[in-house]
Amino acid sequence: MSAKLLDGHDYDELEALLDAVGGEQNLGLDGVHGLLSALAVGPGEVSADDWLPLALGKHPRAIVHPQLDRCIELLLNLHESIEYALDHYAYEPVLMEHQDADGDCEVDHNGWCIGFAAGVDLLGDDWEDALCSDAGVIAAASALQALGVTCDPFTRCLAQPETSSDYDQEALLQRLPNCLIELRHYWEEPRDEHQSRRHRLH
Question: Using H for helix, E for strand and C for coil, what is the string for 106-173?
């Protein structure tokens, strides 16, 4: 893959464009990163025609916005950049930061989780097949669910996690890149079409 990681300027530009062209319930930069991360580690290809409406939200202003093409170009580059980062063990999630009442910075991973859940639901049947047959996929998906990813396949196939402490959440965020890399390796593993998916993650 010839794609390179997006730099800070690219992310700033994309965030501004999403704010400018996005419609109601658009995912924002962190949500889009979660969405495209799910597609990068998922079971199959999803057309940009299917995920772009999720990224841009309902009734986007993008259809008449002069910078629509640039926004889509950056979104497509982000998709490739995420795959590149996963393949080169350089993945970092894009998370939002907020200040609490004391002025301290807090990391908010909820937007990323919402986007990731939307990506899983696009290929929900294939996710469910793996969650019913492979312990490694279950372990990785359970960690994502504990972090806050709520989607139909996880809800139907996984036990509900107990409430996590702030420490648990920090540990889960540190584990996140490895979970995604393991899932990506799982789906890329060649399989006999007549065999169930039982490749074990490490």
Answer: EEECHHHHHHHHHHHHHCHHHHHHHHCCCHHHHHHHHHHHHHCCCCHHHHHHCCCCCCCCHHHHHHHH
96 residue type, one letter:
M
Read off the pLDDT of residues 73-121 as tens digits, 9 standing for 90 and up: 999 999 999 999 999 999 999 998 876 667 677 889 999 999 999 999 9
Q: What is the pLDDT of residues 36-78, one digit of tens each?
A: 999 999 998 999 999 998 898 766 565 566 788 888 899 999 9
3-state DSSP call for residue 19? helix
Supply angle C-alpha 119, 125, 130, rounded to 5: 95
Share of the chain above pLDDT 70, in %: 81
Determine the Cα–Cα distance for residues 91 and 82; give it in Å rounded to an integer: 7
H or E element in which residue 179 lies? helix 166-188
Alpha carbons 55 and 94: distance in angstroms, whole number: 14
Annotated domain spans of the chain: 8-97+105-188
Question: What region, left, alpha or beta, does residue 24 occupy, with left being phi > 0 and alpha being psi -120 to 50 degrees?
Answer: beta
CATH code, residues 8-97+105-188: 1.20.120
How confident is the model over 119-160, as pLDDT tens digits?
Answer: 999 999 999 999 988 898 999 999 999 999 999 999 999 988
CA distances from 38 to 14, 21, 67, 103 (A): 19, 23, 26, 33
State the amino acid at position 12 in one-letter form. Answer: D
